[in-house]
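Recap slide: LacI family DNA-binding transcriptional regulator, sequence and predicted structure.
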Amino acid sequence: MSKTLKITEIAAQTGLSISTVSRVLAGKANTSETARQRVLECARQKGVLQGIAAGRLLLNSLVIFAPQRAFDERLDVFYYRVIQGVGRALEPHDVRLRFCALEENDSDANLFLSKMNQPDSEAAILLGIDDPHIHDLAADLGKPCVLINCRDRKMRLSGIAPDHQLIGQYAASYLFDMGHKGVLTLLCLRRYTMELRLEGIRDAWDSRNLSFDETRHLITAQSFSAKESEALVSDYLANTPRPAWPSALLVGGDFMAAGAVSALQKAGLRVPQDMSVMSIDGFNLAEIHDVPLTSVHVPRDELGEEAVQLLQQRLMRPEAPVVNILLAGSLKARESVRRVRYGKGHSAVNSDGLYD
């Protein structure tokens, strides 16, 4: 807080005690919601909030809405770790964190409203909730609300997410830069976020004047499981002439990559000598079947911390423009991808996925 701040001035203008004003500006929980709002409104008018330390969170209670699977690490390790990131970001603050399970689509609007209308629901985070009706309700309620890994198509709520499209483009571009042209992509397109990654992969093909043909260059999975991916890759190898096999697989998750590598090894292929494998995930399996996994890390733990920071900005400046923040991924180059060199003694793959 600025040294020039006169807490007594806010106390006099709001009719509250100096100790109450001090507790509110310190982010303490032992004040009423009415008093908190009066103090914060007066502080905004005086330009005081800009002088408050950035690390101070000006609320006492936060509720996270997410799909049921997000609360079980065995069902969705990504969302589970995002929630843990929110919790870590709140540790220095006197904030009560509560949870409520909602479906991604066709969510229970009455449940959402009942939770949000509770006095101790001062702010909310929506994690992976795609239902536009819930977004409308959250915006109309007027309480601070931030989205994680979803977006409000009416642009009324701020959000933060991985830059899925750019991550997909970068991953495919890395394989092309390593000399691979016949890249086979294995993705689960369960949400629009995975569709964005596919769009980025298409962009990488287009930027190199290569033609992406879904019938030859894409395998679509129904889940992120290793078992299904192993079956899909095994079927592909069994039904595709060997000269048409790609030199690299780009896989949308570490567990999927584990299944893909298992299928390749059962077919007598070595990774990466005979076929490279790259993942878009990079947190769950550093190695697959003793092969260090090359991957693009999708931001995960950072999402929770940055969401709390964004929520703090909404508290301090509720009139600020709505923003959507996209976090970049990061490459972890290990040993599951080899460089393809052209010339005598080296095989290259043309744009049709055939060896030259």
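Residues 1-5, 51-55, 344-356 have pLDDT under 50 and may be disordered.
The CA atoms of residues 85 and 105 lie 24 Å apart.
(End of recap.)
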